[in-house]
Design goal:
Layout (H helix, E strand, L loop, with lengths): L6 H30 L4 H45 L14 H36 L4 E5 L4 E4 L1 H10 L15 H6 L8 H10 L3 E7 L2 E12 L2 E11 L1 H36 L6 H33 L7 E4 H19 L2 E6 L5 E5 L1 H17 L6 E11 L2 E10 L34 H11 L3 E7 L3 E9 L4
Parallel strand pairs: 7-9
Antiparallel strand pairs: 1-2, 1-5, 3-4, 4-5, 6-8, 9-10, 10-12, 11-12
Length: 481
């Protein structure tokens, strides 16, 4: 840029012009008066007075000119900068000059445009991050190095509210740090404090399963760095309660199956070895050993069959012949089938059903017969002589839908309240409360019953009192679901 177009050049030109105008004015208009009236002192005083007035006027004029050209643009720059500071990123300068102020205005406009674009990008990224956090089903919580929450998603906020009332008495074992350190991080939920302090101390990712009340949470906590310094930590939590429960069920299932199969296998092996060793001295003893082996093989066969049936039901591969079922007729057939057994055991068996037809529009009669047979078999197994077992069938209406309600009630030993929620699990046997009158149960009957009932879109409940008996209630929808 040319020197004369710069702000300094303009000031220099302005001063030169000012001096030149003063000199020209004095030379053209005042010097003749000096020549003609040089001896007159008053005229000389007037000359200097006029010159000073003219010079002051010209200086004032050019000062106002400079104020307009320099000061006012600077005021506009200052005002625009203040607008940017207040968040008005769309502010722009309209100065169009070729001097330094014009360059400053152009640079300012470019800077404001870049800043506005960066702020827009940051807001876009912030909105994107906020959307991602909101859409995550796992709680995400971010802490600073003082333990204060600086960012969280809705699930994380809800979890913080739930965990806010955890008392110190539930502090997990092995918790690191003294009490003062825990108080310092009081904003961090109690279950997360050990991981948070380990993250700040060690600087690496930390993973652990945290047990809170009846739930289990998998926690992954990672440090947040700023200029190679840890400025906080972010925790991602996932509810693994169901996974832990299923894993425990799997281990229990394997252990129970092994236990159930090991018993008949051991008996079969022992008795077969006795036969091979010639321990049976008479045909009667030999037949007795063979009969035990045969009974145990049948027991294993029932166990394997029940396991396969249960596996097919849970996988949804059960073949069911659906059609209209007359439950009144089915109840009478079941009643006749167990009447002989009731007489042999001196148990009173009763059937009560409401008047009218008990029809199911869409059900499998064979599966329902299996359900009733299993329930009655359990009732007979745990009901002593001279007690009563009743079968009840009726039609009810719940929430505008018709259901058939079937109840199998016995007067056996009953089920302990602690065992009642688990009786439909595989291999669960409440032997503590129920005195078994017979052996041979596989522990899968009630699990199969529950799967069959649920495949009919029905429900099954159990109610029991120790020493008074147990009632199993089935509700099956009448209409096709």
């Amino acid at each position: 840029m040319s020197f004369w177009r710069s702000l300094v050049g303009k000031l220099w030109v302005t001063i030169i012009c000012l001096v030149a105008v003063v000199l020209i004015t004095v030379g053209l208009f005042l010097l003749p008066y000096i020549d003609s009236n040089f001896a007159n002192s008053g005229a000389i005083k007037r000359l200097f007075t006029y010159a000073c007035m003219i010079g002051f006027s010209l200086t004032t004029f050019f000062a106002l000119f400079l104020f307009t050209k320099i000061t006012q643009p600077m005021q506009q720059v200052i005002e625009a900068a203040n607008n940017i500071r207040r968040g008005q990123y769309g502010t722009r300068l309209k100065l169009r000059t070729s001097d330094e102020i014009g360059q400053l205005a152009t640079s300012f406009n470019h800077m404001a445009a870049e800043l506005e674009e960066n702020i827009r990008s940051l807001n876009h990224e912030k909105g994107h991050l906020s959307s991602v956090l909101r859409s995550m089903t796992d709680p995400v919580i971010t802490f600073d190095n003082e333990g204060q929450v600086i960012l969280t998603n809705p699930h994380g906020q809800k979890l913080l509210e739930i965990w806010s009332d955890l008392s110190l008495e539930h502090q997990p074992e092995g918790d690191a740090g003294p009490g003062e350190e825990h108080a310092h991080f009081s904003a961090v939920p109690l279950p997360l404090r050990p991981l948070f302090m380990d993250t700040l101390r060690q600087g690496g990712d930390q993973r652990a399963n945290v047990h809170v009340r009846q739930g289990v949470w998998s926690v992954h906590m990672a440090p947040l760095y700023s200029d190679e310094r840890i400025r906080g930590a972010v925790a991602v939590l996932r509810d693994v309660t169901e996974e832990v429960r299923l894993e425990k069920m799997r281990r229990d299932f394997v252990a129970n199956v092994s236990h159930e199969i090991r018993t008949p296998l051991s008996m079969m092996q022992g008795y077969s070895e006795a036969l091979l060793d010639g321990m049976a001295s008479s045909p009667e003893e030999r037949n007795e050993l063979v009969q035990v082996i045969h009974d145990e093989s049948l027991r294993m066969g029932r166990l394997v069959k029940d396991l396969l049936d249960l596996a097919r039901m849970e996988a949804g591969h059960t073949d069911m012949m659906m059609g209209q079922v007359d439950m009144g007729e089915l109840l009478e057939r079941i009643y006749r089938k167990f009447t002989v057994r009731a007489k042999e055991r001196d148990i009173i068996l009763e059937l009560h059903k409401s008047e009218g037809q008990l029809l199911l529009k869409f059900a499998d009669v064979d599966k329902l017969e299996q359900v009733l047979t299993n329930l009655l078999d359990n009732a007979f197994r745990h009901t002593p002589a001279d007690k009563q077992i009743s079968i009840t069938g009726s039609s009810i209406v719940l929430e505008g839908r018709r259901y058939l309600e079937l109840a199998i009630r016995d007067q056996g030993a009953g089920i302990h309240p602690d065992d009642l929620p688990f009786i439909f699990e595989r291999f669960y046997k409440a032997d503590k409360a129920r005195v078994r009158g017979e052996s041979g149960g596989t522990g899968l009957g009630l699990a199969i019953v529950k799967n069959i009932v649920e495949s009919h879109h029905g429900q099954i409940f159990a109610a029991s009192r120790l020493g008074e008996g147990t009632t199993f209630t089935l509700r099956l929808p009448v209409e096709k679901q």
